[in-house]
């Protein structure tokens, strides 16, 4: 009988494999023993971390109706983690904003109603509360201390499969939501300057709001998103760092809202070439000081390179923005910076960002003509629809285009009256004067990137301001 090469291969494998296995089992060498011991140690570590965190992980169901029999009532599923023995649960804002009635199922099977405590959409975080005895609260790790390559576990309810544990590593730190790869994420979740831990631990729909933990079973992040062409895991999962999540959570629990710090600077990222020359991982350059703000009072100057604030390194604008946000208003914070190649430190008393914005908007003129782009802007707000009933409608602060000159840079690139501009070159501006100054200071031959809404559609345009004679 003539056999194909594939058949011969199968026969040989069948004949040889048992002998090889028996020989290996009978005479393991020292290398094999060491490898097996290391594998068992890793397995034990995974088991320990999973057993520690699982009692704190909850399954969240959100409905618009409190009638279970109503087929239209199920609006969303997600995950959360108990962070306080008083019953506080941390999850994602996008998990719970879809309906009025929220229930959680604990690891022991108990299903309980959850009360809404507060939310902070800019970081996609929300806090719930349940009334229950015998609950186990998770503990937080120092997310600043994690290292790329370390093992992590993700726990949650992917596709409704509760208490699912997946393993992976920290793929990257300090991923920023201002990069083009996060455009869809920013649009769907309304996030501004968000920071993420990237992991290849399998995260799928339903994992949102669940914890990402280290091998001690401590929270290093809150799973929030994936980047995928299929809607399922492609090894690109993202978690909100634990220090950000904890700071936001504590403010929500204490006051029901989040007060954000304000330093009073316009900033730009330090070019990688300059960072390499200074032998640093990165930094943020102060482009301009805003008024007599905290930065000016602290002695900072345009051109200074901020490398850390409040103990957080600031390799990029996202890192610095979050470091400022995490600083409580009216409290001192230490800033490390480089000026003329010399390392310096100073202390600033940050202000309340919302108060400063309100003050700036009260002082701003109704409209301002920006000659270099040929358009007139006026301050305004844009309501963003919230699907969560009973919650205030969110608003986005920005600038409304009130007129556009014919044959101007704005008109040639398609900017229209009533377009709502909310960022330029990825930056938020407090007043129209700040925009005018930014355009004046920009290089004459460089385009500027405007993000705006038109008829509820998120759009952008690149235009080159005209050089004044």
Would you write up a description of this structure?
- The chain has 469 residues and is α+β, with helices and mostly antiparallel strands.
- The strands form five sheets. A seven-stranded antiparallel β-sheet has the order 5-4-1-2-3-7-6.
- The radius of gyration is 26 Å and the shape is globular.
- The N terminus is likely disordered.
Distance between the termini: 92 Å
The DSSP helix count reads 11
- CATH third-level topology of the largest domain: Thrombin, subunit H
Largest sheet: 7 strands, antiparallel
Percentage beta strand: 25-35%
Structural class of the helices, strands and pairings?
alpha+beta
Number of strands: 27
Taken together, the total number of domains comes to: 4
The first-level CATH class of the largest domain is given as Mainly Beta
Q: Averaging pLDDT over every residue, what do you get?
A: 82
State the strand order across the main sheet.
Answer: 5-4-1-2-3-7-6
Query: If you compute it from the alpha carbons, what radius of gyration comes out, rounded to the nearest whole angstrom?
Result: 26 Å
- Mind telling me the CATH superfamily name of the largest domain? Trypsin-like serine proteases
Rough outline: globular
Helix content: 10-25%
The low-confidence runs, each spanning 5 or more residues with pLDDT under 50, are 1-24, 186-191, 361-365, 386-393
CATH architecture of the largest domain: Beta Barrel
């Amino acid at each position: 009988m003539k056999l194909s090469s594939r058949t011969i291969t199968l026969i040989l494998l069948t004949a040889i494999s048992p002998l090889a296995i028996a020989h290996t089992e009978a005479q393991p060498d020292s290398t094999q023993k060491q490898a097996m011991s290391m594998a068992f140690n890793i397995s034990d570590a995974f088991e320990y971390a999973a057993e520690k965190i699982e009692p704190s992980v909850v399954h969240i169901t959100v409905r618009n109706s409190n009638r279970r029999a109503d087929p239209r009532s199920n609006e969303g599923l997600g995950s959360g983690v108990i962070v306080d023995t008083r019953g506080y649960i941390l999850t994602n804002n996008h998990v719970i904003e879809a309906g009025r009635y929220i229930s959680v199922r604990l690891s022991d099977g108990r299903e309980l109603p959850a009360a809404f405590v507060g939310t902070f959409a800019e970081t996609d975080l929300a806090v719930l509360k349940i009334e229950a005895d015998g609950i186990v609260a998770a503990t937080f790790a120092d997310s600043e201390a994690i290292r790329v390559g370390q093992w992590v576990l993700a726990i949650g309810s992917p596709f409704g499969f509760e208490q699912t544990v997946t393993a992976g590593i920290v793929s990257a730190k300090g991923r920023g939501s201002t990069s083009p790869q996060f455009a869809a994420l920013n649009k769907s979740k309304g996030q501004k300057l968000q920071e993420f831990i990237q992991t290849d631990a399998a995260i799928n729909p339903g994992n949102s709001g669940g914890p990402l933990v280290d091998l001690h079973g401590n929270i290093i992040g809150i799973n929030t998103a994936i980047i995928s062409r299929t809607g399922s895991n492609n090894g690109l999962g993202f978690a909100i760092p634990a220090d950000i999540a904890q700071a936001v959570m504590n403010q929500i629990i204490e006051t029901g809202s989040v007060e954000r710090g304000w330093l009073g600077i316009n900033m730009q990222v330090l070019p990688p070439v300059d960072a390499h020359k200074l032998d640093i991982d990165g930094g943020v350059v102060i482009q301009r000081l805003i008024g007599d703000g905290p930065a000016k009072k602290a002695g900072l100057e345009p051109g200074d390179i901020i490398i850390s604030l409040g103990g957080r390194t600031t390799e990029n604008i996202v890192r610095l923005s979050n470091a400022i946000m995490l600083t409580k208003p009216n409290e001192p914070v230490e800033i490390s910076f480089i000026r003329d190649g010399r390392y310096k430190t100073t202390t600033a008393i940050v202000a309340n960002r919302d108060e400063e914005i309100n003050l700036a908007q009260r002082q701003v003129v109704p409209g301002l003509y920006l000659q270099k782009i040929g358009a007139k802007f006026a301050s305004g707000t844009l309501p963003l629809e919230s699907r969560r009933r009973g919650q205030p409608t969110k608003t986005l602060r920005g600038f409304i285009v009130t007129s556009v000159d014919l044959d101007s840079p704005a008109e040639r690139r398609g900017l229209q009256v009533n377009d709502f501009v909310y960022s330029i070159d990825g930056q938020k501006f407090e007043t129209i004067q700040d925009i005018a100054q930014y355009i004046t200071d920009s290089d004459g031959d460089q385009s500027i990137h405007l993000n705006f809404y038109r008829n509820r559609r998120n759009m952008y345009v690149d235009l080159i301001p005209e050089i004044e004679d």
